[in-house]
Amino acid sequence: MIIGTGVNLPYRLFRMPKFNSERNPNCELVVDGGVRHDNVEELVQEGVDGIVVSSAIFKHPEGITAGVKTFRKVLDSFEYRS
Q1: Cα(68)–Cα(61) distance, rounded to whole angstroms?
Q2: DSSP letters of 3-59?
Q3: What's the rounded Cα separation, in Å, for the pair 19 and 76?
Q4: Which of 39, 66, 67, 81 could make a disulfide contact with 62, Cβ separation 3.0–4.6 Å?
Q5: What CATH superfamily is the domain 2-76?
């Protein structure tokens, strides 16, 4: 299942892991849209299985390479749940 984040991210996303586990435990939850370096940790902590990152990298003010480095630094800075 893919969720476009938009403006209702907290409402839509934070109820989805429970919804998925009750209805289809094999369903993976992927967020596409609105994923930024300042919200990705929260998304992972809420139980998403995957993220799609595009604008945060490709529209980075210092270029694509800087976007990748910024995002990689953020991902490396927090612990993943197992």
Answers
A1: 12
A2: E--GGGHHHHHHHHHHHHHHH-TT---EEESS--TTTHHHHHHTT-SEEE--HHHHT
A3: 29
A4: 66
A5: Aldolase class I (3.20.20.70)
Name the amino acid, one letter, at 32.
D
Q: What is the pLDDT of residues 23-34, one digit of tens each?
A: 777 777 788 888
Structure tokens at 45: 């902590």
Side-chain half-sphere exposure of 74, counting CA atoms within 13 A = 19
Q: Chain-centre distance of CA 23, in angstroms?
A: 22
What ranges do the domains of the chain cover? 2-76
pLDDT tens digits for 6-29? 544 555 555 565 666 677 777 777
